């Protein structure tokens, strides 16, 4: 990485890996980006776009359009291709748009990527999901909830709809534990209790509920879910439980597959929020740093871009 563009030293107090570039000069960046696009100089494009936070990248995009009359994303598409193009285009999207695009891609074509739907809905707050829903409508001219209903069914669909409207209702932990334990008493579990509680409580409260349920039943929650539920709803609950217990551990597990689109989505969308936590969880899960693992699966400027977002070894 060019020393001139080393934007900061890691410091306490933030869980993101990408932070504001301290000597930000958008007009200079735009001049370099324009020259790089003409020469197809991917090294310069990676250096600039991975060393600016999202707000600064939006300024670069606007300044580029003001000076050239062209859309930066469109210009990138003409100059680049492949996985690096996909990654840089994702970096240029505002955060809500990036998650909206991931949701759209999870529902596109034959079959639905249910786990990506659950990943996003489980790790985002109710307010964030409202903003993502607004971005989805603006980008694709469609209603996100209607699209989700069209792609899913049964209790799984009901869970997604509840999560889209998630909110925090004050409640007593023991009452929720008893309600969930009671739902297990019959031959058929009352999924409605699980949907209601899991979509209307704060994550810290839910973590205590899960621990209480394990004490009450003498079983791990993962075992309860595996035994008492089935199909897409069971898979969805597994994701939700993991995200309540430790979203960083869950995201690290997802990253360990090293599936390109998944790596792009998680690293970009969490780069300014909690990617440091995910890095720590990845090391604990695999025994290898995320930074090194990327080197074993990707190459060239694509690798350099991913490692710049990851930032450093652990």
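^ Assign residues to that structure.
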């Amino acid at each position: 990485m060019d020393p001139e563009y080393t934007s900061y030293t890691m410091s306490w107090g933030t869980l993101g890996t990408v932070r504001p570039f301290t000597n930000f000069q958008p007009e200079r960046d735009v001049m370099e980006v324009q020259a790089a696009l003409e020469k197809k100089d991917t090294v310069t494009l990676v250096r600039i776009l991975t060393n600016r936070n999202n707000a600064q990248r939006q300024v670069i995009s606007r300044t580029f359009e003001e000076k050239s009359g062209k859309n930066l994303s469109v210009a990138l598409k003409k100059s680049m291709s492949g996985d690096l193009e996909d990654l840089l285009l994702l970096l240029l999207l505002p955060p809500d748009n990036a998650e909206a695009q991931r949701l759209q891609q999870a529902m596109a074509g034959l079959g639905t990527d249910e786990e990506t739907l659950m990943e996003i809905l489980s790790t985002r707050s109710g307010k964030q999901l409202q903003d993502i829903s607004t971005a989805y409508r603006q980008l694709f001219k469609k209603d996100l909830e209607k699209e989700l209903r069209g792609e899913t069914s049964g209790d799984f669909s009901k869970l997604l709809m509840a999560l889209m409207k998630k909110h925090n209702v004050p409640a007593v932990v023991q009452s929720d534990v008893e309600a969930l334990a009671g739902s297990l008493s019959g031959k058929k579990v009352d999924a409605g209790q699980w949907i209601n509680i899991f979509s209307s409580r704060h994550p810290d409260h839910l973590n205590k509920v899960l621990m209480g349920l394990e004490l009450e039943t003498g079983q791990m929650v993962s075992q309860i879910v595996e035994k008492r539920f089935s199909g897409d709803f069971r898979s969805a609950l597994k994701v939700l439980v993991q995200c309540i217990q430790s979203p960083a551990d869950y995201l690290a597990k997802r990253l360990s597959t090293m599936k390109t689109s998944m790596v792009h989505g998680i690293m970009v969308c969490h780069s300014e929020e909690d990617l440091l936590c995910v890095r720590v969880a990845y090391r604990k899960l695999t025994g290898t740093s995320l930074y090194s693992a990327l080197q074993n699966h990707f190459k060239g400027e694509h690798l350099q871009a991913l490692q710049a977002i990851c930032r450093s070894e652990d």
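Confidence is low (pLDDT under 50) at residues 1-13.
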